């Protein structure tokens, strides 16, 4: 019976390995040089930390076995309290590993800075000085990805491509909420934020069809916010560009405003032409007619403000107001009788928001009838009670 039990236990121990066999370990087998360097950083860091973890775990079990109660040969020294040699080993080894990890982190942080242009194609090939990177402008929408190719005048939704061994310069922003642009086989994740532009420099070294995704939760359609990244030879990339131009439509501002609306599981779309300056308008949050661009707003601030005329900019500064006119579920009207967000002053208030004079007099007279009268001139008395004091709070 014990043999059968041991066999069953051995099979159960293999189940986690069988489950892991179906995992896609793309992070540990990348196809781009930046992702490859990040993989090496993970392996080196893990190895250095295991230099401490493995001996500590081994010594835990060794001490438990060596100094078990039944082992009468083990040295018993209840007065022992210090060993200089042991202290040196215990502290010097972790300190050396921390110094090594700190040096590796410092170097890698600067070398793998996503804003830093590439200086090599891979570990064996430096980047030629005359090489021009492929510029791809990325917009995170709700819940899909929009890619601009400014050098080719095209755009795509939920699909992008790049030539093998050609540096890629990504310029990344978002339309409304923050997302995170991530192609595990290519490079690390970079945030996409509205009104801001982040950058990523990377290169794909192998042909293939890779998955890209959003790595930052952004709402209902987050789990389906994925796209395909095609690594192609230069000839295949040229064919892909020609296919986009042949099958695509025009992407102007009106089309973009319709595309910007939240949707889930959007299909791949091609745009053969793109309005000039559309990406910059998205970045500056002024695609809609009449909106003030962030660059204009910053210029106004730099000049010291717009003065009394700035009240005219209110409508120009409304951006993500898709739900501004929707009443929250279960919302109730205030006691004044005015509807929520009503422009009419509340009952008992003037247009400036201050209590109306006649209402103040009414409240004061009401309190005086309740026995809270002001002291007469020349009379000492307690300080007057606060106006509108609840009767239930009175003694």
**What sequence of helices (H) and strands (E) makes up the elements?**
HHHEEEEEEEEEEEEHEHEHHH
Q: Give the CATH class of the domain at 122-283.
A: Mainly Beta
Q: Tell me the CATH topology of the domain at 122-283.
A: Immunoglobulin-like
Spatial strand sequence of the major β-sheet: 10-7-3-4-5-14-13
Kindly describe this structure.
By secondary structure, the protein is of the alpha+beta class. It contains eight helices and 14 strands. The strands form three sheets. A seven-stranded mixed beta sheet has the order 10-7-3-4-5-14-13. A five-stranded mixed beta sheet has the order 6-12-11-8-9. The protein starts with a helix and ends in a 26-residue tail after the last helix.
Strands, helices and their partners?
Blueprint: H1 2-20, H2 33-66, H3 84-111, E1 120-122, E2 125-126, E3 134-141, E4 144-149, E5 154-157, E6 159-163, E7 168-174, E8 179-182, E9 190-192, E10 198-202, E11 208-214, E12 226-232, H4 234-247, E13 249-251, H5 253-260, E14 269-274, H6 278-283, H7 294-302, H8 357-369
Parallel strand pairs: 3-7, 6-12, 13-14
Antiparallel strand pairs: 1-2, 3-4, 4-5, 5-14, 7-10, 8-9, 8-11, 11-12
Helix pairs in contact: 2-3
Overview in brief:
This protein is α+β, with helices and mostly antiparallel strands.
